[in-house]
Amino acid sequence: TKNVDILGIPVSSIDRHTLKNNLISHIENAEKSFVVTANPEIVMTAKKNNSYMSAILSASYITADGIGIVKASRIMNNPLPERVAGYDLMVDFIRVSQEYSYKIFLLGAKPEVITQTVRNLEKYYPNLHIAGYHDGYFNIHDEEETTLIVERIRALEPDLIFVGLGVPRQEEWVAENYHRFDKGVFLCVGGSFDVLAG
Ligand code: UDP
Predict the structure, then answer these.
(1) Cα of 77 from ligand 1 centre, angstroms
(2) So what's the ipTM on this one?
(3) Angstrom distances, CA of residue 136 to CA of 90, 164, 170
(4) How far is the CA of 171 from the centre of ligand 1 (A)?
(5) Contact (Cβ atoms closer than 8 angstroms) between residue 87 and residue 77
(6) What is the similarity comment for this entry (predicted)?
(7) HSE of 192 in the Cβ direction (CA atoms, 13 Å)?
(8) Residue 193: left (phi > 0), alpha (psi -120 to 50), or beta?
(9) What is the position in ligand 1's atom list of the atom closest to the CA of 135?
């Protein structure tokens, strides 16, 4: 995939449909992938915080999650095809997972929120295979706590892991732990669990 430089961030020149197909083929081939949907908050945080910038740069795909980023790319004569938002990708992959029987894991949000998100998903997507979930209120830098969560996720062998720990924690968590997984598409989804908990 070609990249477009937006304030030092190589944003993937890819549309939502192509990215969806690429991620499906990664799942089919049991390959790992890390997707960051770069919204303005992410871009600004990366500008200020070098270690967060490194985390972002380790992603397989960085999409433009903001019309401002798409417009900036046009001004630079290197147009990105369209906005690709984390929430939209999450909904795409809930549908894809139900259709193709992919196993998903949800990580993030408050305990009462994530249980409600799971309840809603079970209600609206009765054939969706939710392998497991965990709230997002743990210390991402606590080695013991993180190892327990990583081991639990690894044992469940999910095809997709939705990570909604907020910025910058979600991308830092994936970047730090990615090497411990053999497979899985890691999709950072911000506050999407709260939306799905409705
Ligand atoms: N979140 C979390 N752990 C934390 C902080 C936030 O799981 O320590 C979750 C929060 O409950 C929400 C999501 O991350 O579901 C996004 O949080 P917030 O709106 O604060 O961040 P932003 O939208 O700015 O990324």
Answers:
(1) 35
(2) 0.94
(3) 17, 7, 9
(4) 12
(5) no
(6) Belongs to the glycosyltransferase 26 family. TagA/TarA subfamily.
(7) 23
(8) alpha
(9) 7
CATH number at residue 98: 3.40.50.2300
Ligand 1 pocket, residues with Cβ under 6 angstroms: 41, 108-110, 136-137, 164-167, 169, 190-191, 193-194
Q: What is the dihedral of CA 36, 183, 166, 13, to 10 degrees?
A: 10
Residue the block writes with tokens 């062998």: 157
Q: Is the pLDDT of residue 1 over 90?
A: no
**174 CA → ligand 1 middle, Å:** 15
**DSSP codes joined into one string, 43-76:** HHHHHH-HHHHHHHHT-SEEEE-SHHHHHHHHHT
> For 132-168, what is each residue's pLDDT tens digit?
999 999 999 999 999 999 999 999 999 999 999 999 9
pTM of the model: 0.97
Domain count, the chain: 1
